[in-house]
Prior knowledge:
Blueprint: H1 9-24, H2 30-38, E1 59-62, E2 65-67, H3 70-80, E3 87-91, H4 97-104, E4 108-113, H5 116-128, E5 133-137, E6 150-155, H6 164-168, E7 170-180, E8 186-193, E9 199-207
Parallel strand pairs: 3-4, 3-6, 4-5, 6-7
Antiparallel strand pairs: 1-2, 7-8, 8-9
Helix pairs in contact: 1-2
Bound molecules: S-adenosyl-L-homocysteine.
S-adenosyl-L-homocysteine is lined by residues 65-68, 91-92, 94-95, 97-98, 112-115, 118, 139-141, 156-157, 210, 212-214.
Amino acid sequence: MKELPQDSLRDKGLRRKLVQELEAKGIRDKKVLEAMLQVPRHLFVDSAFRELAYTDQALRIGHDQTISQPYTVAFMTEQLAVKKHDKVLEIGTGSGYQAAILAVLGARVYTVERIRGLHLNAQKILGLLNFHVRFFYGDGYKGLPAYAPFDKIIVTAGAPEVPPALVEQLRPGGCMVIPVGEGDQQEMRKVEKNEEGRVTEKNLGLFRFVPMLENKV
Ligand code: SAH
């Protein structure tokens, strides 16, 4: 028998404080803040980091990867402007936390991960929490052509460039948020495709991500 995940009053209290901190740092979208209030981030990190789960920092999740900083998750999700029933592709499932936030916002989430251990773990935790997300194991650089087009795409690993396959899989009127750059820091870009199919890019500032790796599954 699986134990039910624990979400104590203390966890809820810490979560509320974190959300206030995110608001103070400039996150305005009430729905995003509400989703961050709902998802128990401590269940997505190793129990050794439980005390740090509600601090605004990235944490190790094994396999040399990290769960993104809460501010980064909130910022990217806000930029994505997810609407109920939007079909959203996430590249880099990692812990599954970002996928859970998208699911709470009512998106139909498709998420791809190239490390099997993380892929399986995220499936387990989201299953326990009853979030419905579609999981794929493989190289997200190519996207998921069989399920395209997507209303929104979010890439949660630093990419050397905007992958052309992902731009192709974006629905006209849709957008993608993606950190680009191979060094220490990445430039957060918003790629928009208008109804005529014309693609434009905006720079949203500097962030720090683990790298997106191609063809290394
Ligand atoms: N969204 C995650 C953050 C994970 S960190 C969360 O909420 O926890 C980025 C993840 O991207 C890592 O798990 C890494 O293995 C994965 N990744 C990197 N390159 C990838 C690729 N080409 N395809 C799929 N996943 C990739």
